[in-house]
Amino acid sequence: MNDMLARHLDWFAGLSPATLAQIDRVYAADASFRDPFHHLRGRTAIQEVYARMFRTLTQPRFVIGEVVQQGNTAFVNWDFCFALHGRQLQIHGGTLLRLDDAGLIREHRDYWDAAEGVYEQLPLLGWLLRCLKRRMA
């Protein structure tokens, strides 16, 4: 893993409201960000997603797992741990990162199961989704 990618992953692992101000050291100004709920462009929009995460969740943190890198492209497995309404939750996922020539993230694409990670945690909808999953299995 190259030094720039290692620094970016350290930033994600230690992300906090205070370190969010250093986003310009991690993302290119016109970076794209995509996950099951967002499709954004620009560092400011990405920063707002993380800021909202800190406003709505308790103790959110990323635990970085396996990293596979080839050139300026990397795939990172992670666990996102947080509390919501007093419940401890964890989402397992992966991120495709593409770095620009300066080593900044120009493309960030998250892959994770929104049904399992979010919707199944809701009382009525979660019950319905778990039933559907069992029937389809």
UniProtKB/TrEMBL annotation:
A Pfam family matched in the record: SnoaL_2
Signal peptide coordinates: none
InterPro entries: NTF2-like_dom_sf, SnoaL-like
Domain SnoaL-like: 10-108
Protein known as: Nuclear transport factor 2 family protein
